[in-house]
Amino acid sequence: MSSCPKCEAEVPAHATVCPACGATISAQHAHGLLSTIYSHIPHPHIEHRKKNAPKAASDQCKPMSPIGRFNTFLGLKITD
């Protein structure tokens, strides 16, 4: 059980409102010890991906020659 930050009354672990004074209890305060020993640290790769988005597949492909386009057309007709 945790305590209310406003009136210091005992509050059940799953409660979001203090039964004594009606104050809203934040999820961070309700978790008690875990929230004090754990702090989320985002991976640096996430920030890098936000700044430098991956290239689209269509940007990576080279333009096809007429022979390549014919080969693709023929391959699709054979496999359909």
How would you state the average pLDDT, rounded? Answer: 78
Give the biggest beta sheet.
Answer: 2 strands, antiparallel
Radius of gyration: 29 Å
Strand-pairing-aware structural class: mainly alpha
Along the chain, the helix and strand elements come as EEHHHHH
The percent range for strand residues is 5-15%
Low confidence ranges = none
Binned, the helix content reads 40-55%
Strand order of the largest sheet: 1-2
Distance between the termini: 64 Å
Report the total helices: 5
What is the overall shape?
A: elongated
| Overall strand count | 2
At a glance:
The protein is mostly helical and 80 residues long. It is built from five helices and two strands.
Describe the protein.
By secondary structure, the protein is mainly α. Helix content is 45%, strand content 5%. Strands 1-2 form a two-stranded antiparallel ribbon. A hairpin with a 6-residue loop joins strand 1 and strand 2. The protein is elongated. The relative contact order is 0.09.
